[in-house]
Amino acid sequence: MKRVLTFVAIVVGLPAAVWAQVPPPPPPTPPTPVVVPPLPPMPAPAPVPMARPVIAPTMIDPYDIEMAVRAAADAKEIQRATVEATREAVAAAQAEARRQVEEWKMVAPMVDFRYDYNFDFHPYGQEGGSYSTGISQVNQRQYERAVTSFDREIARKGPRTDAALYWKAYSLFKLGRRDDAIASIAQLRKEYAQSKYLKDAAALEVEVKGTRPEDIQDNDELKLIAINAMKESDPERAVPLLEQVLSRTNSLRVKRGALSVLAAINNPKARQILLSYAKGAGTPDLQLEAIRYLAVNRDRQTTSAELKQIYEATDDIAVRSAIISAYQSSGDKTELIRIAQSGTAPVAIRQQAISGLTNIAAPQDLWALYQKETDKNLRIQMVQAFSGMGAIDQLSQILKTEKEPEVRRQAIRSLGRMKTEKTGQMLVDLYANEQDLENRKAVVSALGSQENAEALVAIARKETNLPLKTEIVRRLSDLAPRSKVAADFMLEILK
To answer: For position 215, what pLDDT does the model report?
Structure first.
């Protein structure tokens, strides 16, 4: 009996001991969910043969030991196979996920177009946007809403009214409302006889009249995928096809895709088409797109002379703004200065040019402009630019020579943002000589922004205007918890 029990313990315990030595499988990579195949069923343990009679009470038949070891080895092999299968499944899932991500990276820029350029350019906070809202809704195939947005733009009689009439007709066509679409085209033709949208409108009218409502399809995604495939095609074949996409009736989203691919093709014909659209061969919408793509590639091909030619050939603020952005991105200081000092350019355009100079011009360049400028708002913007440049000397000179209180006030605020001993002393000296009450308040506010308790105490002791002195003390009370000078002055008042 003792021999039997010993044999059973060995047969049962040996596989378990071997199994325990097998390391557990590593967990799958967390970011990629993987469906792990089910573990194969464990084989039934090999039948244990009956113990044969032995002579010695403490001896075990070698056959029994061999069978026990073989069972443990089989169990270990099964576990190893399961681990390998799991690893292979994880690797396969990760490879598939990477493949899909890479495929989407190639297609997404042309298929999605979630971003939306500001086609309805309203600089410096001017109210508007019905047109750009409508374009965005067309891109999302929300044609009913787009018609409403374009109707608002048409009623506004703004600079994009002719464009709104065209895209309203396009949206009505996509809704199957052929008669309404033709009526919108007729209104465009009647009221805007010189519109750049008339050519596209004529092509749209032909398509509207030749297409039954039930045959209208929204296949922009298919077109965009096909357009994107042109990047890898032979340019001699791809360029003419993309040119056809631009000339036919397509959504602005599809035409933008065609221009994007043309810009990516290193081919003289492709660049010639892109440049022609930048010069206004198509609609203003496409002109803006082409200018942006030229700006991206300007360091290689597009010259300042070409951009200047486009700038001077149009009065469209949005187009001129796009060219200014191109100058800014390429660091063309000369052209930005030329536009900034142009007395015939709209103030909004000159403001944008000055803003573009902030990071690429020297303070001396801007100072030369400032001395000649007569527009108060532009001088204020230049003061803000000096502040961004850290141009203390120019700000000091402005405070000595500028007569316009609002411009001086902006210079004071700018000094307040520069927390240095020099600017603090400049503000104290200015306070003593400043006659304008609002500017004196601005000095107090600037010193408070600098947390300059010493300077505030100095001017508070000399101030006789009670409301103004009260404001200074209020500023010091805010500083008292973290300034001994301010706290001591509070105690001095109470004595």
So the answer is: 74
